């Protein structure tokens, strides 16, 4: 989990987050407060314990962010992140 992109799923970056599963509380990105009970998880995205929504209060200049390995990450729109999150958490039937 990181302030720049929220929580990544199924990528090499998630290896550093495996310890998060051992923690009693949910992942926290450290973003600013938004909505009624949420925190900014990524630019334009506010998440609380139940869902994520687009929120202009979470907007910031995100031309690029640096990843842990020093590479630049291209800015990803909040709408795209919500779609990816929806696909990743969709129940399989």
Question: Outline of this structure?
Answer:
The chain is an alpha+beta fold and 93 residues long. It has one helix spanning 78-89, and strands at 33-34, 38-42, 45-47, 52-54, 64-66, 72-74.
What would you note in describing this structure?
GO terms for molecular function: neurohypophyseal hormone activity. Keywords: Disulfide bond, Signal. Pfam families: Hormone_5 (PF00184). This protein is α+β, with helices and mostly antiparallel strands and 93 residues long. It has a single domain, classed as Neurophysin II, Chain A (Sandwich). The chain has one helix at 78-89, and strands at 33-34, 38-42, 45-47, 52-54, 64-66, 72-74.
List strands and helices in order, with pairings.
Layout: E1 33-34, E2 38-42, E3 45-47, E4 52-54, E5 64-66, E6 72-74, H1 78-89
Antiparallel strand pairs: 1-2, 2-3, 3-4, 5-6
Topology as a string of helices (H) and strands (E) = EEEEEEH
- Overall pLDDT score: 67
Query: Count of helices?
Result: 1
The biggest beta sheet is recorded as: 4 strands, antiparallel
CATH topology, what is it called? Neurophysin II, Chain A
| Percent helix range | 10-25%
Q: What structural category arises from helix and sheet content?
A: alpha+beta
Strand proportion, as a percent range, falls in 15-25%
Instruction: Give the CATH architecture.
Output: Sandwich
CATH class type: Mainly Beta
Broad shape = globular
How far do the termini sit from each other? 28 Å
Report strand order across the widest sheet: 1-2-3-4
Give unreliable regions as ranges. Answer: 61-74
Instruction: Count the domains.
Output: 1
């Amino acid at each position: 989990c990181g302030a720049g992109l929220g929580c990544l799923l199924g990528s090499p970056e998630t290896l550093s987050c495996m310890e998060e599963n051992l923690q009693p509380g949910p992942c926290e990105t450290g973003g600013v407060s938004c909505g009624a009970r949420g925190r900014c998880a990524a630019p334009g995205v506010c998440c609380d314990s139940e869902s994520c929504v687009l929120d202009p209060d979470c907007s910031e200049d995100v031309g690029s962010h640096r990843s842990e390995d020093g590479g630049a990450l291209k800015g990803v729109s909040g709408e795209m992140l919500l779609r990816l999150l929806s696909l990743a958490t969709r129940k399989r039937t």
